[in-house]
Amino acid sequence: MKHQDRLLAIPLFSKFNKHELEHVHGISTELRVKAGQVLMTEGNVGHEMVVVLEGELEVRRGGEHVADIGPGGFAGEMALLAHRPRNSSVVAKTDGVILHIDGRGFAALLEDVPQLAVRMLPIVATRAADD
């Protein structure tokens, strides 16, 4: 599957045009993760977010299971948007592939594609309410 087709399959990016998809491709890196690999640690300052392409991630708060995130889901955006320490840890539940987006790239993407924030808002609002 071509990279752009793969991005279009992700709900967050499904309505992006070619230019916007190229922007995402330019600021992101596909990474393979192993089951048990810690991707984010509760309390640490966050400088990146991830989007799940394959596999599953587990969200933990205070060591307790909070949620699972599968393909198309994302994590880490709260720390980027709020500029505060992470409220949860994220661990790869299975082997998989993630799309890694650093904070600077995320800010540039929001500037270029402001409607992305609108697409993220319902999920971000729910997560903020759960804090």
Automatic annotation (TrEMBL):
Entry's Gene Ontology cellular component terms: cAMP-dependent protein kinase complex; cytosol
InterPro entries: cAMP-dep_PK_reg_su-like, cNMP-bd_dom, cNMP-bd_dom_sf, RmlC-like_jellyroll
UniProt xrefs under CDD domains: CAP_ED
Every Cyclic nucleotide-binding domain range: 12-127
PANTHER family xref list: CAMP-DEPENDENT PROTEIN KINASE REGULATORY CHAIN (PTHR11635), CAMP-DEPENDENT PROTEIN KINASE TYPE I REGULATORY SUBUNIT-RELATED (PTHR11635:SF152)
Protein name: Unannotated protein
